[in-house]
User: Fold these one by one.
Assistant:
Number 1:
Amino acid sequence: MLYENYKVNVPEGVSGDWKVEKFTVAENDIMAIAYALHGRPVPPGIYTRLMKKGAFDPIMSDTPAEISDHFSFIRNATGKCLLNGLGLGMVLKALLGKPEVTHIDVVEIEQDIINLAWPVYQDGERVTLYHADAFTIQWPKDKYWDCAWHDIWPSLCTDNLPEIAKLKHKYAHRVKYQKAWAEDLLRDYRRRGL
């Protein structure tokens, strides 16, 4: 996989409690070691991350580990797609690069994230943004998608599994294929008692 193809081009900026910033990981620096200790090593390079005021860890980044978390869905996405969570727009960017993806509906609850990332990715013909909550948005009865990606959680935590199940249940009759960020990894963590 060519990770460089999936890196985002969202400029640095601040909106409310949210910030997009570039960061550099050098070989053997403390940041590289910290990522590796979390089981998500990051090779040296320049990356982009989304931070929330008061949070120590990024909400999202375009590091290879995070790109890998999304790649299975990106590879299988076709037709009409639903993205619950805009984040840095990494999945949106990848889907816009696939001609077999005909339309993308994006649901994002945080206006500040929309302010930071949406201007980079809006494509009037193929993308519609909904400023809404993925759990409570009311869709027309005839609204269906070929695939859906649910990525609204700020961290890897097995506590996310009930919410993943709730979202997948909400969209079960509207989507042919759906996945959620890190769902398989979190199920593995739960099986191993982590």
Number 2:
Amino acid sequence: MLDNGGLKYFFEGDWPSHPPYSIFSAAYRRIGSVSTADCINAAVECFPFQDPHVDRDARRKFMGERYDPERFGVSAWEDCGDDDVWPNLVRYARLYSEEFGLADS
């Protein structure tokens, strides 16, 4: 999901098995990218219906017709990431390299 084109791209399609978006924000939080996790959560809260992860058409309609980043407080709809996401991911992978089956690097 890293460098995927921002939240609009993230929400436009469906993920296999339709996992709740909290899985993605938890993964970002786990590697230390808290601001990105918070941004995902804030964007999900903008949808005016429950379980947006299961209704691609409703998400697309909302984003195309009614989404106003300033009104909903997510000013970085297109660019939600932080510059530390890659170093955070590398640090996390090194920290848990044995669990991931990675050689020392």
Number 3:
Amino acid sequence: MKYDSEWCGHSKNIFLLKSPELTVWTQEAWGITPAEPKSDPFRLFNVRCVSLSQVVNGKYHGEGSCSFTDPDGDTFTGVWTSVAGQPNRWNFAVGTGKWKGIQGEGTWHAEPAKKPFPDGSGAFCLVHSGKYTLPQ
């Protein structure tokens, strides 16, 4: 099945190192998918993500995992990657309940807030689309 979805939330960055040659940080993010449109199979899900990002000599690379929990408490978790100059990728990894056996992939892009908050946190929305399958 095809999907087009969005979730919005906030994140907290923790920097390990900031230098011209290497910047390394972790990020934890929390959010929710909107109630509309009703055609979105992932509407009203809670979302939690963790990631590790780095910029090496000006080139960005990030990867992490996100877990989505539906209103019934069933979940699916996936892995994302982001490499400078390439589309951001998402792969479904594992699910529980009605999402058990989920497979598929997609692409995504973030729409960040205009500027981060002073404490290193920020607000954003993430737009994603792709395909997924569930066992019969």
Number 4:
Amino acid sequence: MARPSGPRLRKVLAVGAGAAAGLGAALGPGAPAPALASGRPPVLAAPPSCSIVPAVIVRSLVGEPAQTAVETHPVPSGTTCTYAVGSNSLGVQVTFLPVTLAAFEAVEQDYLKGGATKVPGLGQAAFALAPRNTTYENLFFYGSGYNLGIIAAAPLPKMVNLAKAVLDRLQ
């Protein structure tokens, strides 16, 4: 399957943006932060930095000669880390979007109905989109109040290893 684009990518980003905006609006001055399913309050301050996933970790776990990440913020409190691999400026992408576990699970159920595969043993919930006409694999997982995504031209087991490293570094 191609990189998420169009309606599918907008759905994933909308969940993150909607959750971030909704939480921001719900939290007036002095209001207590609501707890996520994990019992932790959602992350509303600065979004994560790509320093959580240095290129050396991407290179060692995914097996791609990833360059230093280019950090962007597609939605409030969200971060996308894009690592060029050779001449491919979109070689590996790691995305952090603050959402609740319930919101992530709702999106996951929709993808599972559309043919995605559940990935056990990775965070609180995870699924992958199997490639069809491309070498890119799409892995989405949940942990520490974030919908996390990894998109790369790498085998799923290597991406799962990277995902585990990301989860460990978010703790």
